[in-house]
RNA sequence: GGCCCGUUGGUCAAGCGGCUAAGACAUCGCCCUCUCACGGCGAAAACGGGAGUUCGAUUCUCCCACGGGUCACCA
């Protein structure tokens, strides 16, 4: 068969040659060791933790080596593409502190010399290489319908054979040109298949940057490389794009391991140099006691936007994912609590080979630490920004009473042992909502073991002795005196030594006041809170509460 | 089912032929303490199983079990 004739027959509108493409996309001039990586998602309108895991790896690999990190949009499947998918990807990553050097940007535009960066706009490029493969006898058209393929598959499964388009099942592999022309003239759509010369008898070793040495078997299936609409499948686009765009390191999750042999084959057939591969472990979730790869459909809590909605600071998601990514990050972070994350020496050598379960406790811990290092003003700005999107009423209150909010957020902040109350911005309202009369309510109750008369007496006497002028020491001395007067130990230690001598201790008296003033049995420093609330509101709350006893 | 990958405490994990098998989170106890949070001290908690190689295996090899992934004109 005349392959040149067939090539022109199939793709008559393609007049470019691989050489033209090579000239259009010259090799990148980068320093020795510089890595070129890409984040290549489908614009499905959803980014999950697994995507971020890969994106962070890509970003660190490129930027710690003086390389390039770019965004390529894999929108070859029109069915899965959503209108603002690209914008969502860019915005989400930008919020998390991940920025691209080149690639797709908003409004359908590109930045960089290796575009277009949307695969849907690269049809001519793919077809140029595909046409060359046809000329070389390495690809051929297949006119099977979906039904025929499905029937073939069923038959193979019934015979317990490996399903797929190969061997005797590759019915169009050696079809005569007349038959092809006949279908073509009848307007029957076709896909272009790669002519595999591989055999499953051939095993080989492959070195993955993360997994190390792995065993692979040659591919013997004639996979589709161009779909009937002339748009490539992932595999073909991967080979062509990563070659032309100069990708040195392909980071993707380990589910791609199974198609790696096919990719190796494609690169070879196209005469491309194989990039390094980094197959990452997957982030898992526990589902009914079983580990499972997280899924975009079933697990909304793994949407990248979920953490934003919950009010986790952007840096936290990144920090957490890097603890999963590089096992020595945590120790580095303990040694360098305030260093920018960029200073950490990221390496694929330290990447985990097995999938890890997402741990919300750990995320919360990291978040508390990150937030505890912020100034009150920073916390305020963050909470306000979050509330504007998710709690408008709280945002209004924060805006009106900014000074009060910042003062409250300052309690126990700074210094070597800062408070760590807040893990997410959506907790702040309940943490300090009592500052506003509209949010204030009595939530906790005083245990029944305390005598009602004592409680009432304590509250009323406190009203008499409370003075805004007191410093913290004299303020507390007054409470101690009050405790003694009512038969409560003025020191906790005294009570512990001889509990039978007292009705309770100064801590209990404080609790009465705390519940009256904040509505809760636990709160940050009471002295500070009373000062922030002001004498009038403190007294009003105590008076009101005393009446309910 | 075929093929591929994985398996150290509840979770994340160090380890890379000889260790009382790190550390972090979570849990529990004690201390500090007006509550809480912080902090300090401590406890409990692990090499999936079986062969082999070796003077010696968590570490190397094989088998098994279990877990995961993948078998599309989806990526």
Topology:
Layout lengths: L2 H8 L7 H7 L11 E4 L9 H15 L4 E4 L13 H11 L6 E3 L5 E2 L11 H13 L3 E4 L3 H13 L18 H9 L5 E4 L8 E6 L3 E6 L6 E3 L7 H11 L4 E5 L6 H11 L5 E5 L2 E5 L2 E4 L10 H7 L3 H12 L3 H7 L20 E2 L2 H13 L3 H15 L1 H9 L1 H9 L17 H5 L19 H14 L6 H14 L6 H6 L8 H13 L7 H8 L1 H14 L1
Parallel strand pairs: 1-2, 2-3, 10-11, 12-14
Antiparallel strand pairs: 3-4, 5-6, 6-9, 7-8, 12-13
This protein binds one RNA strand of 75 nucleotides through helix 6, strand 8, helix 8, strand 13 and helix 12.
Care to describe what's here?
It contains 23 helices and 14 strands. It has 549 residues and is α/β, with parallel strands linked by helices. It has four domains: 3-15 and 123-280, HUPs (Rossmann fold); 286-372, Orthogonal Bundle (Glutamyl-tRNA Synthetase, domain 2); 376-429, no CATH class; 452-548, Orthogonal Bundle (Arc Repressor Mutant, subunit A), CATH 1.10.10.350. The strands form five sheets. A four-stranded mixed β-sheet has the order 1-2-3-4, with helices on one face. The radius of gyration is 33 Å and the shape is elongated. The model has no long low-confidence stretch (mean pLDDT 93). The chain binds one RNA strand of 75 nucleotides through helix 6, strand 8, helix 8, strand 13 and helix 12.
Keywords:
single chain; 549 residues; alpha/beta; Rossmann fold; Glutamyl-tRNA Synthetase, domain 2; 14 strands; elongated; RNA-binding
Overall residue-averaged pLDDT value? 93
Assigned CATH architecture of the largest domain: 3-Layer(aba) Sandwich
The CATH topology assignment of the largest domain is Rossmann fold
Residue share in β-strands: 5-15%
Cα radius of gyration in angstroms: 33 Å
CATH superfamily of the largest domain: HUPs
Ends: how far apart?
99 Å
Largest sheet: 4 strands, mixed
What count of structural domains?
A: 4
Number of strands: 14
Overall structural class, as computed from helix and strand content, comes to alpha/beta
